[in-house]
Amino acid sequence: MAENETLECITEHERILQEIESTDTACVGPTLRSIYDDQPNAHKRFMEKLDARIRNHDREIEKMCNFHHQGFVDAITELLKVRADAEKLMGQVTDTNRRLQEAGREVTAQTEEVIRCRIQQRNMATTVEKLQLCIPVLEMYSKLKEQLESKRYYAALKTMEQLEKVYIPRVSQYRFCQIMAENLPRLREEIKEISMSDLKDFLESIRKHSDKVGETAMRQAQQHRTFNSAVAKQASMGHYTKPVYSLNGRTHTHTPNGLLMDDDTGDEEEADEEVLTAQDLVDFSPVYRCLHIYTVLGDRETFENYYRKQRKKQARLVLQPQANMHETVEGYRKYFNQIVGFFVVEDHILHATRGLVTRAFTDELWNMALSKIIAVLRTHSSYCDDPDLVLELKNLIVIFADTLQGYGFPVNRLFDLLFEVRDQYNETLLKKWALVFREIFELDNYSPIPVDTEEEYKLVVSRFPFHDAEIEKQDFPKKLPMSQSVPQIYTQVKEFIYASLKFSESLHRSSTEIDDMLRKSTNLLLTRTLSSCLQNLIKKPHIGLTELVQIIINTTHLEQACRYLEEFITNITNVSPETVHTTRLYGLSTFKDARHAAEGEIYTKLNQKIDEFIQLADYEWGMAESDGRASGYLMDLINFLRSTFQVFTHLPNNNNDHASMSGKVAQTACMSACKHLSTSLMQMLLDTELKQISMGAIQQFNLDVIQCELFASSEPVPGFQGDTLQLAFIDLRQLLDLFMVWDWSTYLADYGQPTSKYLRVNPATALALLEKMKDTSKKNNIFSQFRKNDRDKQKLIETVVKQLRSLVNGMSS
């Protein structure tokens, strides 16, 4: 066992030694570690083995050195012999080199010169080649500077683009090209700022020029409309000429860039006048230039948004009116000119540029502007109280609408607004004509028109449609039944129709619509303005009965003239009155109402006059006997009534209708006066403040009533049948007869019978009057109680009073 282990150990040591000899020194560590990891004291045996191996190698080295030592000695001896030859050869080589150097020095110098020249030539060629690359860059950069100095910014941007994409990349390694490349973005920003500054200047300038642009466009539109009207007239006369004038003064069509292409023909009056367009008045180059610049720079959207935003702001400023715009037509004209100028410019931009503004954008602007314009016009037109100013405003609105319609903007809402303005115009006309009518009525003398010659007659008839065969047969001088205000009113109504017609012109409405407008406005004039003036006139305190009678005559003739006004409107509009929707004039009802009001005022004033006379009555109610004649105040009253009713003979009676009408008015007035007189006299008798009435006073009162009855029977107004007028005093007559005859037995016996002689005597009335007489009888004679007759009469009165009271109580129950 010990021997086997020793053999294994020796074998292992041999392996380790071979491994150490054949392995790199850095890897010996693991091998040596394995020696210590084996059996105990194995390293000692290994060390012994290692020492034996070292001695073995030393012996081998010594044997090898001994073997080669003689050869080494021989080699050293040979080397020493060669050294002398080598030194001799070195000297020869050095000498040869010196001679060679001396011989090639000139050649070397020439060769270096040639090399230097070749290098220079190559550098020059390289320089030329590089310069040929750089010169175009420098030339383009110089060109860029010139373009910037001459403000040709769009060309400058194109030059920059070429520099960046073509030229600079060829010579990008040079410092100056790098500087150029670094400068180009800065130059672009400068160009953007400059072009934007130019655009701002343009926007500011366009605000100043919008007024002029709009004025020119509206003038041309007005000329176009005038020309078309002339052409229409020529066409209607059979002399049609091809239209040669339009919005810009000549026939035009829209080209793709939005400019107006004008024909060479034109109106002779405008031949020498240069027709201006928006381009003639405004320099649009800043817009085009800025648009192109931003397009090239790839920032077109920013420019479009900025332009549209600024124009929206300007639109809002343009749409703001001056506070006193409504005071003069110039204020409206300037307002419209600015708006038209604004949208003419936008229309030009729309057609001259691609996408800077779109149709949707302009439509949005126009709709916003249209709403604002309509609101402004509604507000300011409401302040106008001058019809001439409203008419001029209407004409401006029409020209304004026609101008913008020519540029493709919808204007229907403006024409709808004109209907509102028309109502305002009619209101101002009505106010104006109200003053005219008042002045006519104030200056009228309310007497028939005297005509001394046929010329005067024809002059009146030419102003007012008056036809009366009887008056025409009369010799001059003669009088026409109406007063001077009638032809004046008729003429003014026609003037009103003309004034109203002026507003209807150029509204693009049919003849039927215009006819309807005229008739409605004329109806307003008749039923509201003229009717109000007539009513106020009738109510004025200084208008007497004579004037009222003349007013009735005047309204009658004006009523007859209404059909001529119908014909007048028909002739103007050429619309047949038989048309289904034709509006009729309400003048007949207007003048009838005025006439009825005048008649009522006549009745009222007559009654007031009667009251004034009755207030002059001064009866002595305790008189013993009457004076034997009627009272003075009553005779004056009757004379006044007689003279007054004579005035009614002047009422119109030229035909049966008017005769019956005039008779009715006179009869009604006379009957009203008599009834009022009878009622007033009755109230005088029954006045509660009157406590005592004597029989003498009754007799005096009876004389006055007899005069009233005589007046009624004298037929102060013809046409009454029988004693119709006397019946107004029947209540008084029966009451007075009852007291004068003292026929109480008959009254009491027949009371309530239809055939009663005192049918109209009311028991309460008789009782009131009888009690006043009873009190008088008591006080007339303090000794009456001692006379038998007086005592009997007093008893009779008391008996009658009791019976009357029973009748009154029976009626009340």
Using brief descriptors, characterize the structure shown:
single chain; 813 residues; mainly alpha; 5 helical Cullin repeat like; Tetracycline Repressor, domain 2; 4 domains; two-stranded antiparallel ribbon; 26 helices; 4 strands; elongated; EXOC6/Sec15; EXOC6PINT-1/Sec15/Tip20_C_dom2
Structural class: mainly alpha
What is the assigned CATH homologous superfamily of the largest domain? Dsl1p vesicle tethering complex, Tip20p subunit, domain D
What's the CATH architecture name of the largest domain?
Up-down Bundle
Q: What's the CATH first level of the largest domain?
A: Mainly Alpha
- In total, the number of domains comes to 4
Using the alpha-carbon principal axes, give the shape: elongated
**Arithmetic mean of pLDDT:** 78
Textual characterization of the structure:
This protein has 813 residues and is an all-alpha fold. It has four domains: 10-131; 284-409, 5 helical Cullin repeat like (Up-down Bundle); 431-447 and 483-604, Orthogonal Bundle (Tetracycline Repressor, domain 2), CATH 1.10.357.30; 619-811, Dsl1p vesicle tethering complex, Tip20p subunit, domain D (Methane Monooxygenase Hydroxylase, Chain G, domain 1, Up-down Bundle), CATH 1.20.58. The protein is 74% helix and 1% strand. The chain has 26 helices and four strands. Strands 1-2 form a two-stranded antiparallel sheet. A two-stranded antiparallel sheet has the order 3-4. Helix 3 runs antiparallel to helix 4 (153-167), helix 15 crosses helix 17 (545-560) and helix 17 packs antiparallel against helix 19 (587-615). The chain is elongated, with a radius of gyration of 67 Å. 28% of the residues are buried. The model is unreliable at 238-273, 653-661 and 781-786 (pLDDT under 50).
